[in-house]
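Q: What does the assembled structure look like for these inputs?
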Amino acid sequence: ASASAVADALAHQARLTKPAGSLGALEEVAVRLAGSGGVCPPAMPAPAALAIFAADHGVHAQGVSPWPQEVTVQMVANFLAGGAVANAFAAQVGASVTVVDVGVAADLPAGPGLVVRKIGYGTADLSIGPAMSAGDAVAALEAGISVARTLIDSGARCLITGDMGIANTTASAALISAFTGLDPAEVTGRGTGIDDETHARKVAVVRRALSVNGIEPGTEPLRVLAAVGGFEHAAIAGFVLAAAEARVPVILDGVIAGAAALTAQALAPASIDHCVAGHRSAEPGHAAALRHLGLRPLVDLELRLGEGTGALLAHPLVCAAVRVMHEVATFDSAGVSEKPM
Amino acid sequence: ASASAVADALAHQARLTKPAGSLGALEEVAVRLAGSGGVCPPAMPAPAALAIFAADHGVHAQGVSPWPQEVTVQMVANFLAGGAVANAFAAQVGASVTVVDVGVAADLPAGPGLVVRKIGYGTADLSIGPAMSAGDAVAALEAGISVARTLIDSGARCLITGDMGIANTTASAALISAFTGLDPAEVTGRGTGIDDETHARKVAVVRRALSVNGIEPGTEPLRVLAAVGGFEHAAIAGFVLAAAEARVPVILDGVIAGAAALTAQALAPASIDHCVAGHRSAEPGHAAALRHLGLRPLVDLELRLGEGTGALLAHPLVCAAVRVMHEVATFDSAGVSEKPM
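A:
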């Protein structure tokens, strides 16, 4: 981050016609983006582009989700037809929608809005061995990097993470446990809706995955990712790395993005300077990931949908935070009396 | 609220291609607006119109705010020039901005965007007697009603409350204490920024105001409003009543709107069905008001600016909640498998 842009942003905030600190968390966002972008005021984070990374998970076979695996493919079709919640929210905030097949367990018909960067037909079952090879993890990272670069080259000035993959909260919990050191029971949630028995099985699966794969504190990040991640986690980590390289902000969605961002942090800590936490989902692992990332979520409405929905909702808030830096008058320019000290 | 529209909204939510309940608080908003509007899906709450009700307060003489009273007039000029945070946020969400002088302590030059409905040159000091006469309270209510009707007649399909008035958090605390029955110490905050000594004085002023004016549990609402309210509180209460009559949703801003909505609730409880709590401000009285109103705030970012800023930030969230009801595919229509029960 640029120290001088941070200092300029703090000084500018203090001159604006509002009580000091009265915009709360939005002031931090504006200062953060000034620092990460290296310019004050920070560039308006628009237009925004949502990329939904879709993939399947071998661990689905362990009964960790009540949803059939084919819902991943069905929802990809729904995104492409414009019928999902992510489409409605993207329309609301003016974001483009790109769907990326990084590893769905079926072949998808080509069509506008679909980018095929398939690494495999779903990962292997992480509870009995590595989910993917190190080579595949790198290929998935590269897919995310490539998508980010293409969107930025096309004019996007804010990237928004999205994901779709039945059973992907299980892989997320394993990644979060590995990177934060917290016990699987603390970071494994109920995903899109499971009962107590399924939840207990899910915790046990996460625990076994870490043990079977020999994941310990300090295990090298790429090995963690390959052992217990999903193709979409790897791709989102790459997406974050490429956005950071281009100094374009990324709004992170929920627990899948949180797990992916922990991976990016482990690989390149400064990449997180470019991230804004769009929301805090109902998943316990997400709150743990955000604490470890040092990010404060902007929206906290008990969403647990994924797809990028929470991050999309945060986009107008991020824009508002930055817009203040461009458009609001100063005490001097507006002739408004300052509070006496 | 329309019971059949509520039932239709709940049934429609269950058919949409998303896990049940996965949109958290936004689902409640959509169902609530269906019920209050009497139609499912509810009408899109756009375009939105912000009305900033500005007034001064005789209690300023008690030293409850560090800001000079003339900041009210200066900020009105800033709103009209487009230089305030509320203007930047309104631009972000596409809301119009109307400034209403309901009782600023100076004459304002006429200009576009300014509606003059001045009831007086600031209220009287509520800590030594009634802030206004009952007649003036009614006149201020009527001003708010008139502004709401004009905005709705001009096409607004969502009203947003805003306020400006140095010392208006003191009157808000008195109204909130009166309507919730909570002690002044529990509901009196630090406004836009005061030290411990000023805060202690402010609590004492609120306590004295309620005592001097003989406000007790069960005091008639109009008498409470006239005794310890501000012209902008009365006007915002009228604004809420008129919006409810027209079945147009209102997004409430912070503690001033909360105090005004408690007044509207006391006068006509069903009017609150049409209200959405835009945010929860840092003022303790605001949280108390929201609990009493039964409203859950959508944005919670420690804002304490007023002007309508918190409500403006919530507008895209409310739109997103409603848009889901219009645009998202159902499991049937999209061919997505439902979760087995």
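The radius of gyration of chain B is 20 Å.
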